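Quick start: read one record
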Amino acid sequence: MIDLTDMDGLVRFNMLKKIYFDKIFKDFELSTPPKEHNCKLFNAMISQIKGQSVKHNLYIKNTRERRMKLQLNVPNTTVLCVHEVGCCGATQIAEKGAVK
């Protein structure tokens, strides 16, 4: 697992991110949605280090914040992005919503 919630993980991530963006810069499309760039970056990073998951902090808007069209960047949750679901030991995985 790559842990982007601590300094060592962030340093490692930033090195890999630079390598990734140097490779794709000539093909970079501004019209590509930011979420797609995140996904491609995490997939490239995971394949580079033979990892299975990335733990990172994320800002998720609630209903009121979406209505207000706020663009905050301060993280309010920690998520685990899993490349292959088979590596999870969880008994239940939710694609949408919370695990109960």
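The longest strand covers residues 53-58.
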